[in-house]
Design a protein that fits this description.
Strand order of the largest sheet: 1-2-4-3-5-6-7-8
Structural class: alpha/beta
CATH class: Alpha Beta
CATH topology: Rossmann fold
Number of strands: 8
Helix content: 25-40%
Radius of gyration: 16 Å
CATH architecture: 3-Layer(aba) Sandwich
Order of helices and strands: EEEHEHEHHEHEHEHH
Length: 240
C-alpha cells in the first residue's frame, strides 16, 4: 500500500510505503542531492526494496539551500520524523538517509536539540543509518552559504561531528561509506566512528566500507537484482 504527497509541513510532502505485514518498524528516509537538489520521488525504487524486508518507509522532502538557509533543512527533517511518530502506528522509528539525507540523519542523531524542539527524545529513535553522509560541515553549506572552497574541512555547528562528546547517545548507528567515495568522505566517517568510541566504547556504532563509488550500494542494483545497502541492513536487523 502507498500513500503519496502527504503534506507534513507548509509546502513539504512525504510518500509512505507500507509492507505486507501487520507489525513493522518505520524508516524515515531522506534523499540525497547535495542539499541543493533531489526529491522524495528519486528514492522510490530503492525504498520499495526496504519494504520487502518488512519496513514501512516514509520518504520526505526538505528545504534546499537554493531556497533557504541552514539549519532549516535539518529542522524539516525533524518535522518529518515528528509527523511519522504522531501518525503511523509501528513498532518503532528508524531514521536513514543517502548522502545529503545521511548528513541530515547524522545531524538529528548527534545534536539532540532538533528533535527536542519537536517534542521527541533521541532515545525514541530505534536506530540510525547513514549512507555516505558527511560528518564534517557539509560542502554545500561551505559553498552556497559561506562562499568557501567546498573541499575545505570544517567542524562547527553545521557538522554532526561537532556534537560528539561524553553525553552522546543513540540506540544503534550504522555508518556506510565507500572505497571510492567523495574526497575525504571515507576518512571523515572513520573519524566520526573513532570520535564516538573515544567517548563511549559501549555505544552500538558500526562502520561498513562498501565497494564502489559514492552511494553505489543504494543507487545501483547488483548481480542479484538487489541493492548492497539493503543486504547490509538485512544482516544488521537483528539489533532492532
Amino acid at each position: 500500500m502507498e500513500k503519496k504527497n502527504i503534506n507534513f509541513h507548509k509546502d513539504l510532502y512525504m510518500d509512505i510505503f507500507f509492507p505486507e505485514v501487520e507489525e513493522y518498524f518505520t524508516i524515515v528516509y531522506f534523499h540525497g542531492g547535495g542539499l541543493i537538489e533531489g526529491d522524495k520521488g528519486d528514492t522510490h525504487e530503492f525504498v520499495k526494496h526496504l519494504t520487502k524486508l518488512g519496513f514501512a518507509v516514509a520518504t520526505a522532502n526538505y528545504s534546499l539551500l537554493t531556497e533557504s538557509k541552514f539549519p532549516e533543512c535539518v529542522k524539516d527533517a525533524a518535522r518529518a520524523v515528528k509527523y511519522v511518530k504522531d501518525n503511523i502506528k509501528s513498532k518503532g522509528i528508524l531514521v536513514m538517509g543517502q548522502s545529503a539525507g545521511a548528513y541530515l540523519t547524522l545531524m538529528l542523531c548527534l545534536n539532540k536539540e532538533y528533535l527536542k524542539e519537536v517534542g521527541i527524545d533521541n532515545k525514541d529513535i530505534v536506530a540510525w543509518i547513514s549512507d555516505a553522509g558527511q560528518p564534517t560541515t557539509h560542502f554545500n553549506i561551505l559553498n552556497y552559504e559561506r562562499g568557501l572552497d567546498p573541499l575545505l574541512q570544517r567542524v562547527d555547528e553545521a557538522a554532526p561531528l561537532y556534537y560528539v562528546n561524553k553525553d552522546t547517545y543513540f540506540s544503534h548507528l550504522l555508518l556506510l561509506t565507500y572505497e571510492c567515495d567523495l574526497p575525504n568522505r571515507l576518512e571523515q566517517n572513520k573519524l566520526l566512528m573513532s570520535s564516538i568510541k573515544t567517548f563511549n566504547e559501549d555505544l552500538d556504532v558500526e562502520l561498513k566500507i562498501l565497494k564502489g563509488e559514492h552511494c553505489h550500494g543504494s543507487g545501483t542494483l547488483d548481480e542479484d537484482g538487489e541493492y548492497e545497502v539493503v543486504k547490509v541492513i538485512k544482516e544488521w536487523m537483528h539489533r532492532l
